[in-house]
């Protein structure tokens, strides 16, 4: 039986955060959420409750509000913090780099200060494969030298170094950084999924809009990369696998002193056009695409070597690309307007059960 822990999840109503809350609750942990809802909706936490029967305690808060953050730590006996809250779009980061540095680095330093003040010494940090730069010509391992190519990646790499330095000077602190590759998909029930607020940035939300007939085609950012079909290659990983990886991290964060770093990926590379084909197959819809200029900050290939976490924790991904596309499309069909009002979570849950032929709403 896993030791029950009280886990503070910053960014817990976001895409990965909300799926991680479900996985943590199902693993017997208590969850507290902080989110400023800048790129997510409180509805995601209603969906967490629909799936688990448990409503996480949550606080609407910007982590840079240190008095407000201190109040949360004063109210709860927190064992572990999972820190998701950040801005996370590569392309957008090249347009507003200072916002990315202020939010991503500012929130992290504020969190580290308050954790230290309240004697909370266990941190799981949401890092990113984007800190590596280009993965040519081989899958990336954790020992590869980072080479960030955009402000988002620089902010994540900077945060990793700050956390690692903090563990050096505060040896009571232990941290794990998870460098995940490209999370896509949704909870199999269709009750929870990727529902960004504001402008879309990532490829899967665009693909869902194209399949739903709301966009005429996917703009493919470049077909002149040194890859099999000229389009950029990424290591797509099911969001439920990413969530499960965070539960494993919570259960292993005490293992060694200092900061550990692990890739969360599948080791399988998929080009943008191959992803379009896979999504067309899974959705049964035509996916038109238009080749455009490269997007600033992008690299040709980002594929991870997943072996280190498998050796250390015996953890590996469970879902393939078809399952990622199937589950993403199932979420889209059950939630055509994302989490905006209109469809009650109970209806979505019932539809989700019917759609995937399961008698209980489980992943
Ligand atoms: C994927 C591919 C684009 C949109 C993401 C997250 C980041 C990090 C890494 C976790 C690229 C192409 C995209 C479109 C396209 N994950 N694309 N047309 O930039 O790899 O980063 O994964 O930390 O947080 O943002 O993901 O989905 O934006 O792009 O051709 O309309 O799809 O060029 O090759 P990215 P993405």
Describe it for me?
There is one protein chain. Helices cover 40% and strands 17% of the residues. The chain has helices at residues 15-26, 43-52, 66-75, 90-95, 97-117, 151-169, 203-211, 239-252, 272-283, 307-313, 321-334, 345-356; strands at 6-10, 30-35, 57-60, 80-83, 122-128, 174-180, 182-184, 218-221, 233-234, 236-238, 258-264, 270-271, 289-292, 301-302. Strands 3-2-1-4-5-6-11 form a 7-stranded parallel beta sheet, sandwiched between helices. Strands 12-9-14 form a 3-stranded mixed beta sheet. The chain has a two-stranded parallel ribbon with strand order 7-10. The structure holds UDP-4-deoxy-4-formamido-beta-L-arabinopyranose. UDP-4-deoxy-4-formamido-beta-L-arabinopyranose (WQD) is lined by residues 88-90, 128-130, 180, 182, 201-203, 206, 218-221, 232, 234, 272, 295, 298. Residues 88-90, 128-130, 180, 182, 201-203, 206, 218-221, 232, 234, 272, 295, 298 line the site of UDP-4-deoxy-4-formamido-beta-L-arabinopyranose.
């Amino acid at each position: 039986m896993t030791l029950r822990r009280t886990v503070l999840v910053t960014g817990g109503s976001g895409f990965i955060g909300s799926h991680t809350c479900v996985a943590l609750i199902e693993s017997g942990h208590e969850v507290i959420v902080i989110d400023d809802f800048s790129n997510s909706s409180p509805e995601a936490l209603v969906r967490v409750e629909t799936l688990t029967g448990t409503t996480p305690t949550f606080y609407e808060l910007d982590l840079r509000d240190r008095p407000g953050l201190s109040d949360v730590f004063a109210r709860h006996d927190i064992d572990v913090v999972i820190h998701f809250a950040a801005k996370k779009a590569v392309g957008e980061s090249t347009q507003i780099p200072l916002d990315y540095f202020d939010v991503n680095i500012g929130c992290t330093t504020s969190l580290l200060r308050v954790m230290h003040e309240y004697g909370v010494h266990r941190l799981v940090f949401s890092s990113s494969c984007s800190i590596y730069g280009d993965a040519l010509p081989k899958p990336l391992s954790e020992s590869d030298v980072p080479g960030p190519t955009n402000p988002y990646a620089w902010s994540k790499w900077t945060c990793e170094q700050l956390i690692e330095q903090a563990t050096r000077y505060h040896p009571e602190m232990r941290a794990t950084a998870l460098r995940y590759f490209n999370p896509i998909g949704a909870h199999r029930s269709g009750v929870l999924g990727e529902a960004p607020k504001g402008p879309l940035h990532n490829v899967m939300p665009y693909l869902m809009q194209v399949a739903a007939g709301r966009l005429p085609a996917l703009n493919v950012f470049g077909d002149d990369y040194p890859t099999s079909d000229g389009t950029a290659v990424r290591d797509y990983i099911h969001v439920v696998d990413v969530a499960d990886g965070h539960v494993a991290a919570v259960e292993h964060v005490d293992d060694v002193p200092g900061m550990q770093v692990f890739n969360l990926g599948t080791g399988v590379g998929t080009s943008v056009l191959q992803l379009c084909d896979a999504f067309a197959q899974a959705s049964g819809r035509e996916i038109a695409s238009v080749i455009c200029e490269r997007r600033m900050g992008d690299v040709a290939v980002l594929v991870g070597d997943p072996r280190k976490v498998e050796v250390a924790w015996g953890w590996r991904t469970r879902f393939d690309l078809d399952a990622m596309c199937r589950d993403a499309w199932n979420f889209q069909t059950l939630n055509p307007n994302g989490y905006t009002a209109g469809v009650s979570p109970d209806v979505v849950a019932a539809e989700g059960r019917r759609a995937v032929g399961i008698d209980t709403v489980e992943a």
